[in-house]
Write a structure and sequence with these properties.
Mean pLDDT: 84
Low-confidence stretches: none
Helix content: 25-40%
Radius of gyration: 17 Å
Strand order of the largest sheet: 1-2
């Protein structure tokens, strides 16, 4: 799941610079994605994490293929080979329920993707020290004024 979170964070919409990472998408793919499929996938996955958004994932079909243990597994198809493990990881995460633990930070000036590892899965911010603190400080100041 870390690879999926890193892929989602190749789009950096933060208005501040307190996170590490945020590699540009080109460093993931080099020249492999001339049709913009990676940007489309990233946008569709980020939309899927936003409440009420319907992702456009039709360009990334899945199929069942035999695995080495004699069972079946989900396999993605993409003209950009670097995107196949991302799509397969997301598909497996959806099946197992782990996708519900991938979230976008609730801070509108951040929207950083993160893997919620809290016990109840209720984390709202990518970092309590940065975004959570800003939100709570803002709410406190509003109550005081």
């Amino acid at each position: 799941m870390d690879q999926v979170v890193a892929f989602l964070n190749t789009l950096d919409v933060r208005s501040f610079g307190s996170h590490e990472g945020g590699d540009v998408l080109g460093s993931w793919l080099g020249e492999a994605d001339r049709d913009g499929l990676a940007e489309g996938l990233r946008g569709a996955l980020r939309d899927a994490l936003s409440e009420g958004a319907e992702p456009a994932l039709a360009a990334f079909p899945l199929r069942l293929v035999p695995d080495t243990a004699g069972g079946l597994r989900l396999a993605a198809q993409s003209p950009v080979p670097a995107l196949v493990p991302i799509v397969e990881t997301v598909a497996n995460a959806v099946v197992t329920g782990a996708w519900a633990r991938i979230k976008l930070c609730a801070a509108p000036e951040c929207r950083w993707a993160f893997h919620d590892v809290s016990r109840n899965g209720g984390s709202r911010w990518c970092s309590m020290a940065v975004c959570g603190n800003r939100h709570k400080t803002r709410a406190y100041r509003q109550r005081q004024s």
